[in-house]
Design brief:
The chain has 211 residues and is mainly alpha-helical. The chain has one domain: Tetracycline Repressor, domain 2, CATH 1.10.357.10. It has 9 helices and no strands. α8 packs antiparallel against α9. The longest helix has 25 residues.
């Protein structure tokens, strides 16, 4: 049976880094952050560890590349939920629905792709020459920030109450996801878990738009 590994000679300059990142992303998808190992990613695509280290000088460098990809998939999942929001109704209803969709997409991603979710927010060693990822500069959180700003512009949300709401909303949905994945809520029935998610999203939206 022919080997499924790709010959190291088939990569053009610059392609190997992408191939290693793709292999590591699949390792994360299956096994979470602990599965992201540079030597294993190199083995998966059939290149030497020496060749891999020419592109990623440490596991931290590779981990940050994988975290970037995982966050991009999270953003795509949130965008899918946004696409389901009806385009009819008044502005306030639309914006409330958009906020809810963003939260539902976030939690949905966590439950559907736990390995990537855990990896996206895994605390890893610093990347060479780079500080840690600023979550508020990533696509998922920019969508939340933009929707909150739209709520202010529409007059639903007072500018006085706007500061740090993206952090409060994030803490709520992330906490729900963590409790269901790795906390005591994992022992609840799927129906109870979903009910908790719905009530949690109600609390976030009602809290943001109250007053």
């Amino acid at each position: 049976m022919p080997s499924s590994k790709i010959s190291r000679h088939s990569y053009h300059h610059g392609d190997l880094a992408n191939a290693l990142t793709g292999a590591a992303l699949e390792l994360a998808r299956a096994g979470g952050p602990d599965a992201v190992v540079l030597r294993e990613a190199a083995r998966q695509i059939g290149v030497s560890a020496t060749a891999a280290y020419r592109h990623f000088s440490s596991r931290g460098d590779l981990m940050h590349a994988v975290k970037d990809c995982a966050l991009a998939e999270l953003a795509q999942r949130m965008e899918q939920e946004l696409a389901r929001v009806p385009t009819t109704g008044d502005t306030v209803t639309q914006l409330r629905a958009r906020m809810r969709a963003l939260g539902a997409g976030y939690i949905g991603f966590a439950l559907e792709k736990p390995g990537l979710f855990r990896t996206a927010f895994h605390h890893s060693e610093p990347m060479t020459g780079r500080h840690g990822i600023d979550p508020l500069q990533t696509a998922p959180f920019k969508m939340v920030i933009a929707t909150l700003d739209d709520l202010v512009e529409s007059g639903v949300l007072s500018p006085r109450r706007r500061p740090f709401l993206e952090l409060a909303a994030w803490a709520t949905v992330h906490g729900l996801a963590e409790l269901i994945l790795d906390g005591p809520m994992r022992h609840l029935s799927p129906e109870m878990q979903q009910a908790a998610v719905e009530r949690g999203l109600d609390m976030v939206i009602d809290g943001i738009t109250a007053g």
